Amino acid sequence: MDKMSPPTGLSVYQFLGLQPGPKLLVLGAVHGNETCGTKAIERTQQEILDGALRIERGSFTMVPITNPLAYQLKRRHGDRNLNRNMRVTDPPLDFEDSVANQLCPLLEAHDILLDLHSFHTPGIPFALIGPPNNCGDLEPFSKADQEESLALRLGVDRFVEGWLDTYAQGVRDRLARGAEAHVDYGVGTTETIRRFGGMGITLECGQHDDEQAPELAYRAIRATLAHLGMASMEPMPLPARQPEVIRLYRVWDRLHAEDRFTQDWRSFQKISRGEVIAERHDGTELSADQDGWIVFPNPNAQVDQEWFYLANRSDRLGSA
To answer: Do residues 169 and 297 both lie within one domain?
Structure first.
């Protein structure tokens, strides 16, 4: 790190169609070790420059490396997780604050976000979607139908909801034990664009080193452009035939460096009620309170950071 110059800016690619249309933003490497989106964006940008892909309607903006410090360090974050507690901060207190100060206005200027990610444990790709339409205080939303329609055409069959509800409970848990937590800790890119009146989908394209992850990210970009009518030469994508929707309902933090899992869990591995998932350093067992899935288990989680999630089945999107 001492021999590297710290990043000083973001590279942004933008292409404007001559006809009116949606304002689409695609992000890669919000987490620096998740590079499938970066590769897909670079490939898409080159095809536009070569004339193999033509943007005809609306505006199409891509940020290949959204967190350049984390990308430079080849890890999830620089000073902190960019995809949490996203807001404008004056003055910025860390590198991610400086990025968020540029990213929030960019999100506000767009209608639709496709945020391309990957995950660290083996598993199948999936899309994170927002809440149903609601007028609640936590995450009011009125574009669920449009968001769901796009999500169904991104090339995955598994969908996850319940993010911000789960994080709100996680914040309450942290505050109850005296840990530091901000009410907006769970707010990332998609939650931010929804707050600005848009819609957003996080596409988890596969494991970090999966060779198919950049391909899925690339195909998702092309499918999004076609679905939104921004590139008419694109074939219209078909919706997922048998969508499976899973709802997050609980997040557990790691509280001690010696907290450990009882096995090498895979994300979306099925669990049964009463099954022991992990043990605290003092021997306290953490068990599943119902049948469902374990999601995003992170054996390398930092203390007072999210360790794993629990999920159950949802009936959205006609899930069986």
So the answer is: no
